[in-house]
Design a protein that fits this description.
Elements: E1 9-15, E2 21-27, H1 29-38, E3 42-45, E4 50-53, E5 61-69, E6 75-83
Parallel strand pairs: 1-6
Antiparallel strand pairs: 1-2, 3-4, 5-6
Length: 103
């Protein structure tokens, strides 16, 4: 695992059943340790400079099913089962973003 100069790594959180990307946050070694030990997602808040478990205030708790890292080890994919209201998604709003890739 490669952490940045600030000691953080990007964590992309994905709902395991729908494959929806729920959020992007940051972890350091301590947040990753807490996640692995508890089975719930823990992150490091860059603005508040503190650790927080997802769902303590929102009720949207995330239970980890798998953690993978990318080929160069500088990003995590955290697959979860999320309980609670969940994030606002394009399907639940009037906004939808579509992209296409052309060769």
């Amino acid at each position: 695992m490669k952490y940045g100069a600030d000691g953080l790594v990007v964590a992309i959180v994905q709902e395991v059943t729908t494959r929806d990307v729920l959020m992007v946050a940051y972890m350091d070694a301590e947040a990753l340790r807490r996640t692995l030990e508890s089975g719930r997602t823990w992150f490091y808040s860059r603005s508040r400079k503190e650790y927080w478990p997802k769902g303590e205030t929102s009720g949207d708790r995330q239970y980890v099913t798998k953690i993978s890292y990318d080929c160069d080890g500088d990003a995590l994919l955290v697959q979860v089962n999320q309980e609670g209201n969940g994030p606002v998604t394009p399907a639940s709003t009037a906004v939808s973003i579509e992209t296409s890739v052309r060769e």
